[in-house]
Design goal:
The chain is built from five helices and seven strands, in the order αββαβαβαββαβ. Helices cover about 30% and strands about 15% of the residues. The chain has a domain of about 100 residues: Glutaredoxin, CATH 3.40.30.10. The termini are far apart. The strands form two sheets. A five-stranded mixed β-sheet has the order 6-5-3-4-7, sandwiched between helices. A two-stranded antiparallel ribbon has the order 1-2. The protein is an alpha/beta fold.
Length: about 210
């Protein structure tokens, strides 16, 4: 009896150990949801699409050296509508693979902000760090970009896009019309005072 009990206990122990040692699988569905199971993923399961490291307008996916240059000497281009030199300057930056932000000048507020920034109201204006370049010059812009350490040829990862152009002065949301104050509810007219003396409903003429 004792031997059988010992064998039974040993069998349970072996089963328990086998259960603890069972593999756990990490499954990721096509939507990126992660689940853990003791069942291996199906052979036809579709893996989640990899997330790109070079997202729009971010520098996280840039090569290390280029990312260091961008942090030290960020580039901003100030442009306007129907401005040929602005387009030429933009093309130069894109061709060289220079990450940059673009600010558009369209409104009177934008013009005033540009004058405070550069002491003039002509476009384009390029800033490389704290350096300002007024007006487009291929040779001058290239010289300053070289000095800042930007590569002469594009080194941007595939799929990288600069952030969309934004107005120089952020647009203010339109003021919402003030809600009309509701008129106070009309109070019900007070009931007419009961006539003195007895009435058909109050034959004793009692007052309160």
């Amino acid at each position: 009896m004792k031997l059988n009990a010992a064998l039974s206990g040993l069998t349970l122990l072996v089963v328990s150990c086998a259960t603890l040692a069972q593999a756990v699988y990490r499954n990721v569905d096509k939507n990126g949801k992660v689940t853990f199971s003791d069942q291996p993923p199906a052979a036809n399961a579709q893996p989640a699409a990899p997330r790109s490291g070079s997202t729009v307008g971010t520098n996280s996916g840039l090569p290390y050296e280029l990312r260091q240059v961008v942090q030290r000497y960020p580039v901003t281009l100030y442009t306007g509508d129907e401005c040929g030199p602005c387009g030429a300057g933009r093309s130069l930056l894109i061709t060289r693979g220079v990450p940059f932000e673009e600010r558009t000048v369209r409104t009177n507020e934008d013009i005033s902000a540009l004058q405070r920034l550069s002491s003039q109201n002509s476009l384009p204006v390029l800033t490389i760090g704290t350096q300002q370049l007024k007006g487009f010059s291929d040779a001058e812009w290239s010289q300053y970009l070289d000095a800042a350490g930007y590569p002469k040829a594009a080194q941007l990862p595939a799929g990288y896009r600069n952030s969309p152009a934004q107005p120089l002065v952020a647009l203010q949301p339109a003021a919402q019309p003030a809600e009309a104050t509701p008129a106070p509810a009309a109070r019900p007219a007070p009931a007419p005072a009961a006539a003195n003396g007895p009435t058909p409903s109050n034959p004793a003429g009692i007052k309160f």
